[in-house]
Structure formats: C-alpha cells, structure tokens
Amino acid sequence: MINELLLLCLAAFSAGFIDAIVGGGGLLQTPATLLILPHYPVATLLGTTKIPSIAGTTLAAFKYSKHIKFNYKILAACAIVAFFSALAGAFLVSRIDNSVIKPVILVVLILVAVYTYFNKQFGIHQEKAHSVKKQVLMASLFGLVIGFYDGLIGPGTGSFLILVFIAVLGFDFVSASAHAKVVNIATNLAAILYFSSTGHILFQYAIPMAIFNIGGAYFGTKLALLKGNKFIRIFFLIVVFGTILRFAYDVFSSYRF
Known about the structure:
The structure is a single chain. This protein is mainly α. The chain has one domain (2-253). It has ten helices and no strands. The protein has helices at residues 2-22, 26-36, 42-65, 72-91, 98-118, 132-152, 157-168, 173-197, 203-227, 229-253. α1 (2-22) crosses α3, α4 packs parallel to α6 and α6 (132-152) runs antiparallel to α7 (157-168).
C-alpha cells in the first residue's frame, strides 16, 4: 500500500501543477489511479480522484482571485448549471459507453490545437464581442455540456472550460484559467456528493493525494501568474497535444485489426 500511495501522491502533485495552469491534470491523475489500483471498481477510483482534484483546484482559484477580477454573473451561471449537470453525469457514469463520446472529443481537440497554434493572439488579449446577457446564456449552455462530461468521464475538463472562456466568451488565458477553476470546483463538488453517498471514495488514498495536489497547484499557480498569457498559451498547446494522444490511444486501441 505504501508504494501505491507514493505513486498516487506523485501523480496527484503533477496533476495539481498542470491543472493550476491550464487544466487537464486529470489526464494524468485518473489513468495513473486506474493503473495503480486496478482491483477497485472504476466508479470508486473516479470518485477517489475527485477529492485531490477539488483540493488543488480550490487553492488555485483562491490564489487567482487575488490577481484576477471575476465576472460573477457569467461565473455563477456557468458554475450552477455545471454543478447539476455533473450530478447527472456522475449518476450515468456506468450506464453510457464512453467509446461513443471519445472520438468526438478527439476531433474537437485536434481542431482546438490547430486553431490555437496558428492564431497567435488566441487567449492573449480579452475581447468582449458579446453582450453580458449573451455571455451568460452561452456560459450556461457550455456549463451544461462540460459539467455533464466531468461527472461522466472527467479528465480534460479544466482545459475544455478554459477553451470555452477564451474562444466563446472572449477571456484571455489568465482570466480564463481563473474562471475555469471556480466552475471546476462546482463540478468536482457535485461528483463528490454523489460518489460519497454511494460509497465510491477511498479516503485512505484520497486525503494524502489531496495534500500533494494542493502542493502542485500552489507552484503551478505561482508560475502561471508570473509568466502570464504567452506562457500559458504554450503550456495549453502542450497539454492539448498530450490530451489528443491520450484520446487517440483510447479510440484506436478499442478497434480490433
């Protein structure tokens, strides 16, 4: 158990670091947990990873709040809808075949990577082309979709949220990261409420992982605020590329040749 815990804590620290900057830490933490603890049900492992995720995300959101001015109307709309949507996703986690969803996500991620790479100003400056009413409506819509995804699958949620705040709502990378953290707290909380009520959380692993995730989030947030939008843009591309490889492997390994 000690060796397993050490590996899980290392994965949690790395995930917290990545998550604090551009999201997507779950792409490391979730598969690591599934690999290290293969004898537990998938729902139990997904529930367990939500504890360190919410711990690190909460610290990152707090640190960002000291430097970023939040748009509370947009934030509230997105977070509240995402919370209830994540509850539904957590409930259906064992009832929907993820292989149907992953190919679609793979295509979207490839398009995101190409667009971000060639559009050098993407996420560098804020552009508010929409009315507040329209922004709130779009934030609610994407909160519904991404919240459900987080409850159902999880990994990559932070990156998807950042993408929405930049591409759809016109935020820069730093502001998008800050707002995404708060919404991610809501989705993680919803999943934790469901998984804990059904006994799907291993607290003997979750608590130590949470401590290390917080440590990673602390250093990740400091680096993001220090380096600014251009650094986060590069880091975002790296994480999205890694996400593409991960989803591509999942999609193509499911086919028999």
